[in-house]
Amino acid sequence: MIFTPLSRRLGCSRSIFRVFQRNISYVERVRFLQKLKAEDRSCLDYLPDGKFLVYSRSKPLLRVDKANTDNALVWLSYSEIMQYYPQVITSSVLVDIFDDGTPRYGVQVGSLPTAVQDQLESDTEANFCDLRAALFMVTWQEAHILSRANCIIMWNKNNAFCGKCGAPTQRNAAGYTRKCTSCEMTHYPSSSPVGIVVVTDPDHQNMVLVRQPRHPPGMYSCVAGFSDVGESLEETVRREVAEEVGIEVSAVRYAASQHWPFPGSLMAGCYAIAEKQELSIDQSELQDARWFSREEIGTALQRIDRNPLLRLRGNPSGELFIPPPGAIAYHLISHWMKGTPIQDIYQQIY
Q1: Torsion of CA 264, 266, 271, 272, to 10 degrees
Q2: First and final CA of the chain: distance in angstroms?
Q3: What is the pLDDT of residues 146-204, one digit of tens each?
Q4: pTM for this prediction
Q5: Per-residue pLDDT tens over the stretch 251-267
Q6: Which three-class secondary structure state does DSSP give residue 49?
Q7: Do β-strands 103-108 and 51-56 pair in parallel, antiparallel, or remain unpaired?
Q8: How many CB atoms lie within 10 A of CB 345?
Q9: What are the residue boundaries of the structural domains of the chain, listed by start?
Q10: What gap in Å lies between CA 46 and CA 61, rounded to an integer?
Q11: 193-349 domain in CATH 3.40.50.1000?
């Protein structure tokens, strides 16, 4: 598409911008978001009213000293981001609509000179942080925002050419579609489904946790794996448990989900039951897997609650800990400890 210069549009009429004076309903937000996704003119016209989440090579701008608070993410106004990155007009992607109706966008500024990026960090008293680390330094809701924005940005970067004919593609203003300039096929971003599961014994006194080679010392998490084409979520969970730890589960029940940006997954959190029995570990996938008692899980939860940075640094003593609150595994495990009814977990964590 050809982008009309913003100044020309603004010169015609500034009255098209609607500023909400109140928090708007979920339905209003969804419909407004859909309007901006579908209408290039509207999406671009609302840019000056927007807030911008900034990335440099997939590293979000974060106030580290405000970690785990609502003030950790840095949202720049249109005038502020334009001082550093005028290309925001044609390269930002739509992320969501805030409670008060403010459109929020994401933008990648990795092409800027290092000196400009350093100035941006200095002016905002923030730092570009590794995304994996950042997900554990923000609230649960903000982790979803970080994940979503980065995935939309990276999807546009990685789909500059048509997967059908190889010709260049052209994005729409919101960054949610790319149309081939030759065969005219329209491409859309998507997520890969992953089943992640807490496996417990019938008495709910023991849980299976697994350790992958890339995990820091001491960390164990839930069995997880990508869905195969044509599988249901329940089939994915049963197969992954069988493959990784060699046992058969029953009573697979869905609880809640989370988007995860590595590489761009929808993590569907579940619970399943299996008789406590010896595990047969797939050594090509896992470094270790064990049954842990309720007491051991409780201690592991306390350990990560006291020090979420264990996820990054590991535990030199090797004592058990689990993923921190930025990961759905934490919520599945902690609500098992609390005895929260499965049907209530979604409301508890969102």
Answers
A1: -70
A2: 37
A3: 999 999 999 999 999 999 999 999 999 999 999 999 999 999 999 999 999 999 999 99
A4: 0.85
A5: 999 999 999 998 889 99
A6: helix
A7: parallel
A8: 21
A9: 6-146, 193-349
A10: 23
A11: no
